[in-house]
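Progress against Task 2.4 (sequence-to-structure conversion) is shown through the following example record, which the project officer requested during the mid-term review.
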Amino acid sequence: MASARFAQTVRQFSTSSIRNKLVKPPVLVFGIEGRYATALYSAASKQNKLEAVQKDLVAFKDLMAKDTALNGFIENPSLKRQQKQVVLGELAKKMNYSPLVANLFGALSENGRIQKLSGVITAFEKIMSAHRGEVFCTVTTAKPLDNVTLKDLKSTLQLFLKKNETLQLELKVDPSIIGGMLVNIGDKYVDMSMASKIRTYTNMIKQSV
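Structure tokens generated for the chain above:
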């Protein structure tokens, strides 16, 4: 059974021999969700089905957001694994999802981990973002930036990017930082807020008293 083979790949992912046979993802994702997402990425890469798989997963994620009954079914611990496997398999067939997505549903159900499906989808999306060279950045300021400042900010953030990477910028407003900004880009974090400076100066004064 295809889902059984997929489950076996996930179980053996931690061994070096199997890991060497997998297509290495552009970014590491951890935990059980990361193992399933990585195995799915490898399988989809070998079949040149990455975009199709992500499209199906996004569609299913949207379906879960709208259908409370579906969420309840997935999260219900009293239902048997086989029952969930059959129902989700039929749903995948009805929605014309990729066989790889159907295999994922089957493997998670068979292993009693279907409740982690949402986390697996999130982990897969993270891998795909890195695959496309997207670098996510969140900038928080005390008030909205004007157009000139925003343009300068984008130019500066581009310096953090490697060749063929693209910036995905999200702007947030938080008056509590008083002034300056907080920057999260990739795995980097920079606190240039006025609130942070005030805390630093306050601690220095307290230590000197």
